[in-house]
Write a structure and sequence with these properties.
The protein is globular, with a radius of gyration of 30 Å. The protein has 15 helices and 45 strands. It has an eight-stranded parallel β-barrel, surrounded by four helices. Strands 19, 33, 36, 38, 40, 44 and 45 form a seven-stranded antiparallel beta sheet that branches. Helix 9 packs parallel to helix 10. It starts with a helix and ends with a strand. The protein has four domains: 318 residues, Glycosidases (TIM Barrel), CATH 3.20.20; 129 residues, Jelly Rolls; 140 residues, Galactose-binding domain-like (Jelly Rolls); 132 residues, Jelly Rolls (Sandwich), CATH 2.60.120.740. Helices cover 18% and strands 32% of the residues. The N terminus is likely disordered.
Length: 846
């Protein structure tokens, strides 16, 4: 027994009383969702929820079924999404719910596949999304203060929230109506700014919660990171390690929920790659469920793409690519598979976690067992944790010994048999490959159109100072031109022939290109930490009339913080330094303002709009600022995702058949000296079989002739298994078929499976001994079984999947003594009808 008899009897009595009260309170199963301190209760049934965030505007409707299916096969039973106010109501009173914005269709697809839905209405969502999801017009509502006890804001927020709830009810999508929505969210991480509004912040939280509850959805509401969430709203945790950092709900009768478990970190332009290992992520989830948690949501499970101009300040077009499903919707291994195995292990613990009584046993320094036992039964589950960051341990527990690597948790669904350890990755690995699409890159004939640099004579909006960028653009374009006229006398110009005056412009963000008399003189920009910057560029000024034209750029609007409605951007002071007469301040000059580029206004990125301008050959048209480039290409064959290689460009935007595939900024290098993103997703639903129009707007200068269309695959698959990964097995496993199956699944063998029914055509690497490296880059160690590759080829070639056991029978003769032997395999999958995979240029990405 894990508990003493006297204590066990007492706990059994307490548990039976609690169980009787729960049954009395809930009676027969009914439609709807309630909760108690242990879990959500969905239609009268307790649930462990493994949720994943997938945002409908960041993918396309044709991708939704596969994304949801892959999530389901990864052990996910709920999909979480925000509701994106600004895509649904871009103009006040004018709504759109079509295409990528068809929220109802997205939810119904989730429902069709048998998963629950967590709907985060917000309507402030942050999400690294333009303006945190608020439509621009909200800023211009008179006397408004966002996210405060402010009547104009509350009126608009309630109206939108009420509309979304009404829409869900009309479609019968709430669990109380038999639908899939089991949880809704109002507001989002408000605690981070609440103090700034003082009493109006506290009263706003109460109003928001009560307003939402009064809408009568029949399912609970949550507020994440909101300690004073009003009853019955549940306050939930966001972060990387809520199992250790969350102090718990604000009332003892609320369950412990984790609404955002960050699977990596979103990236801004200028950031190095973001990483979070599968092992660390699994540890955080196991830790959370071992400490009373019953709902974990991965943010993101699929990040997707920030199409068009919807990314917030400096955020890259690719979003959470390190999620279990990458930007293209492909399984990123081993993260997807390792979490799938984790979910399977936790499901084996379901009865104990939902109905058991928790206790903790100290097994040593930084070693503990968290046990859930249902009094009066044999239902028992244990989580043995080694919290040492660098030392492996062997833990003695319940009559058995368990090897635990550093910073790991072993899951024992019967308190005896280890079926999963967070550090022992048994799922396969893969590597992403971009391969040139020959049919899409033939006969590349680029055309170009140079946009004009306006001067003050071209501007109808004039003012005796610089106007604020966002108020002028109203977020209809990234670009606002500031232009002025400067008349100089000969004696004001520098006397020295090689001396040139400096144009100096201070901006509140985010970027700026400068032109004098139509000639480009340079660029400057801020970054995600410090938006403000000062541009300095030498200019050829002449006697008489000169025109200074400053192209101010935003790279998305802010998505968080206090007083979003008052955020500023754009040029605020301009001066000329180095004149004979000293520094000349131009800030009080008459300035002309113009929104957008001419090509943008005419829509020349569409087929119809492109006919409005005269295009010329781009044969010698590289490295020119403010230049539009276009060409046509055929759709790549096959079903692999499609991407555009823009590594030869600098900064701008791209469209395919009129659809914006996002901003690119290749010239903004990370501290590692490389761009944050060079490959840009083109969804296949954007493409026709032939004659697809590709249009690029380059702001400062690049080479379009080295832009290539590629296909994307994860056909490089790998396995890396060592002898220490073997599970702890004993006689108890034979008494439980589910546990027996789980143990059989993790017995020591390398498993490889090709995606999309492809077959293994080549074993690129195989070693049994002490190899090292990562998938796509393995190296031999000092010890290697001479027949390793032959063994693997015999087991795997020309098969869709294969198993290679790590046994003496498979690798006869043994290999090297005194080491922990590891089997590393790297294989390449191809379509069954395709010959050698090497045909065509390809390159790999981790």
């Amino acid at each position: 027994m894990l508990l003493s008899m006297d204590r066990a009897a007492l706990l059994r009595l307490i548990w039976l009383l609690v169980l009787s009260a729960t049954i009395a309170a809930h009676g027969d199963p009914v439609q709807g969702v309630t909760y108690d301190s242990r879990s959500l209760i969905i239609n009268g049934k307790r649930e462990l929820l493994f949720s994943g965030s997938i945002h409908y505007p960041r993918s396309t409707p044709d991708m939704w079924p596969q994304l949801i299916s892959k999530a389901k096969h990864g052990g996910i039973n709920a999909i979480q999404t925000y509701v994106f106010w600004n895509v649904h109501e871009p103009i006040q009173g004018q709504f759109t719910f079509e295409g990528r914005y068809d929220l109802v269709k997205f939810i119904k697809e989730i429902w069709k596949q048998g998963l629950y839905v967590i709907l985060r209405i917000g309507p402030f969502i942050q999400a690294e999304w333009n303006y945190g999801g608020f439509p621009y017009w909200l800023r211009e509502v008179p006397d408004i203060t966002f996210r405060s006890d402010n009547e104009p804001f509350k009126h608009e927020m309630k109206k939108f929230t009420k509309m979304i709830v009404k829409m869900m009810k009309e479609e019968k999508l709430y669990a109380s109506q038999g639908g899939p929505i089991v949880l809704s969210q109002i507001e989002n991480e408000y605690n981070t700014i609440q103090i700034a509004f003082k009493d109006k912040g506290s009263s706003y939280v109460q109003w928001a919660g009560n307003m939402a509850v009064a809408l009568g959805t029949g399912v609970p509401w949550v507020m994440c990171k909101q300690k004073d969430a009003p009853d019955p709203v549940i306050n939930a945790c966001n972060g990387r390690n809520c199992g250790d950092t969350f102090t718990g709900p604000n009332k003892p009768y609320k369950p412990v929920l984790w609404t955002e478990n960050w699977t990596a970190q979103y990236r801004s332009f200028g950031d190095p790659p973001s990483q979070r290992s599968a092992e660390d992520l699994a540890y955080s989830v196991a830790r959370f469920f071992s400490k009373n948690g019953t709902l974990n949501n991965y943010y993101m499970y699929h990040g997707g793409t920030n199409f068009g101009r919807y990314a917030s300040e400096f955020v890259t077009t690719r979003y959470y690519d390190e999620a279990p499903l990458d930007e293209y919707g492909m399984q990123r291994e081993p993260k997807w598979g390792h979490l799938r195995d984790l979910h399977s292990a936790l499901r084996l613990c379901r009865k104990a976690l939902l109905w058991g009584f928790p206790t903790v046993q100290k097994l040593g320094e930084e070693i503990e067992a968290r046990i859930y036992q249902q009094p009066g039964t044999n239902v028992c589950a244990a989580f043995i944790a080694n919290n040492h960051s660098s030392s492996a341990v062997t833990a003695n527990f319940n009559g058995g010994q368990y090897y635990l690597p550093p910073h790991s948790i072993s899951i024992l669904p019967d308190c005896k048999t280890e079926v999963f350890n967070t550090q022992k990755v048994l799922s396969q690995h893969n590597s992403r490959v971009y391969q040139l699409a020959d049919e899409s890159n033939k006969d590349m004939e680029w055309k170009m159109y140079q946009d004009q640099v306006p001067n003050i004579n071209h501007c109808s909006l004039k003012h005796p100072a610089h106007l604020e960028h966002i108020n002028v653009s109203k977020d209809t374009s990234d670009y606002v031109w500031y232009t002025t006229r400067l008349v100089l006398q000969s004696h004001e110009l520098p006397l020295r022939r090689n001396s040139r005056p400096i144009i100096q412009a201070a901006s509140l963000g985010h970027g700026l290109n400068a032109f004098v008399n139509g000639v480009y003189i340079g660029s400057a920009h801020g970054d995600n930490v410090d938006k403000s910057f000062t541009f300095k560029g030498a200019a050829e000024l002449k006697e008489g009339e000169n025109f200074i034209s400053l192209m101010s750029m935003t790279v998305g609007l802010p998505d968080s913080g206090v007083y979003l409605e008052h955020r500023l951007a754009g040029v605020h002071t301009t001066s000329v330094v180095g004149l004979n007469t000293g520094t000349l301040d131009l800030s009080s000059n008459e300035w002309g303002h113009k929104v957008g580029m001419e090509g943008e206004i005419m829509g020349i990125y569409t087929e119809e709009g492109s006919k409005k301008v005269e295009w010329s050959s781009a044969k010698d048209g590289s490295n020119r600022p403010l230049t539009w480039y276009k060409r046509y290409f055929d759709c790549p064959t096959g079903a692999d995702p499609v991407a555009l290689d823009l590594s030869s460009m600098s900064k701008g935007q791209a469209w395919v058949n009129g659809e914006g595939i996002g901003r690119y900024w290749v010239s903004f290098l990370s501290p590692l000296g490389s761009p944050s993103q060079t490959m840009y997703h083109i969804p296949r639903s954007f493409l026709k079989p032939t004659n697809n129009l590709l249009v690029i707007f380059e702001e400062t200068g690049g080479d379009p002739h080295r832009i290539f269309v590629t296909t994307v695959n994860r056909d490089t698959i790998c396995s890396f298994i060592s002898e220490n990964d073997s599970p702890h097995v004993n006689s108890w496993e034979r008494k439980n078929s589910e546990i027996r199956a789980a143990v059989d699944n993790v017995k020591l063998h390398a498993t490889l499976k090709c995606p999309h029914h492809k077959v293994i055509k080549e074993i690129e690497f195989a070693s049994f001994g002490d190899p090292s490296g990562v998938c796509g880059n393995y190296t031999m160690g000092s010890c290697n079984h001479p027949e390793a590759k032959n063994v693997v080829e015999k087991a795997c070639l020309d098969k869709t999947s294969c198993d290679v056991p790590i046994t003496e029978e498979a690798f006869s003769g043994g290999v090297c003594s005194g080491i922990t032997r590891t089997l590393a395999i790297q294989a390449r999958c191809v379509e069954k009808k395709v010959g050698r995979w090497e045909k065509g240029f390809h390159f790999k990405e981790g």
